[in-house]
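job 3f2a | input accepted
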Amino acid sequence: MSADVERPTANWRSLALVVAGIAITSAGHYFTPPEYRLWHGIFQRLYYIPVVYAAIAFGWLGGLAAGFTAALLYVPHILMTWSNEEHYAMEQYAEIFMFLAVGAVTGVLSDRERRRRAELQSTAQKLSQVYRELQDTFEQVKRADRLSAIGQLAAGLAHEIRNPLASIDGAAEVMEAAERPEEVLAETMSIVRKECARLNRLLTNLLDFARPRHPEWREVNVPRVLDSVIELVKHSAGKGIHFKRNTADRLPPLWADEEQIAQVILNLTINAAQAMPDGGEIELSAREMDDRVLIQVKDEGVGVAPEHIDKIFDPFFTTKDTGTGLGLSVVHQIVRQLGGTVSVARNETRGMTFSLFFPQTPGGSA
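job 3f2a | predicted structure (366 res):
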């Protein structure tokens, strides 16, 4: 049943209750002997119930109409029963004016409340409409953002692939030449292998970024992971680069994916080593901080320009000539997948510090 059908039905029901209330009260007056004055006083006050109800249901006009109806039915009773008691009769007539006053005042207040309720309902509907429009706009913005990200990925990927393909194409032309010394052939093959490895690394990083592996949650021994990363990087790091591991004596266990944690720290450590062509110290540290595990990779490299710090986690953004620009994007995505956060800051003297915050429990919030 629609609201338009229910409203007239409710109005008729309310009208029937008002009429019935006034009729029953009046019948009580007419059928009660005059010597039961207490009961007449009770019936007299009972008129207020249908009058107030009419005012609430139909507003000030309904309240006045109910008051007049009660008065019209009550006045003959006063004339017939209390005409010989002038003082008591005057009190009854005064009560009739109270019927009208109560009906009018209650109706005015009811109308005001009804208007206020209608305004609130209208405001709620408008807010609901605005909320739906905001949700639609937000979804459109998210779709536009995804399309923009896809466009940036495609443009970056095309740019990164074009350079090694050009090198391979040039190497192929050299190899097709009729006369080529053996050392030229060896150098050309080295270029082909190098560029193929570069393409493979680019596609691997792209796949890691686009389809990150689901974490396998287990307890991670952070100091052991730091030691293994240092052991891996120190053999390929340049001369003059020293490593330092600094961990708290009682470091709480970290529930995460050990392989992904190692990959994140390894990427950051390799970046740190590549940023230190003149050597220096790379410090890997871990400690507890506010019920979280803080892992930091600090270097003494050339650093990142302040205007580039906000972009270093963007896909394909790189300050290196041979970088893919996906390493830090992969780091950012893995850390978020593990429920952590990653931040970067310039050191006071030189170099950068990458800070990883992880919750101690799986699925926690860092």
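job 3f2a | The chain has two domains: 1-211, 218-359.
job 3f2a | closed
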